[in-house]
Amino acid sequence: YDEYRSGHGGGSTSRTTENMYLMVATERGLLGLLVFLGLCGLMWKLLLEGTRARHGDCDAKLRLALLAAYTGFLVNMLFWDALNFPLTRVQFWLLLGLGLATLPKPGMRPA
Fold it and tell me: pTM for the whole thing?
C-alpha cells in the first residue's frame, strides 16, 4: 500500500471514482451534477416521447434504437467513468446529436 500511495511501484496510481455521476459531482459540484442530470434526463424524456410512433413516422424505430443505446450509456456510467475517454465521449455526444436530429420539429407533419 505504501508503494501505491507514494506513486512508486508497479501498480497504477491513477485515482478515479469509476462512476461518472460521482465524478461529475466531485469535479463540478452540486450545480454541475444537477445540470448534467437535467440534460441527461431531458434528452431521455425527449427520445422516449419521440418513440411513440405517429402515422407515417418512420423515424420512431430509429429513435427507439437511439433511446436503447442512450439508456445503456446512462446505466454504464454508473460503473465506468465513460466520458473521460475521448472516443467514448465522441460517441456519447454523437448519439445525443443523432437523437435530437431525429425528433419531429414542432408544427411539422411527417412526410
Answer: 0.74
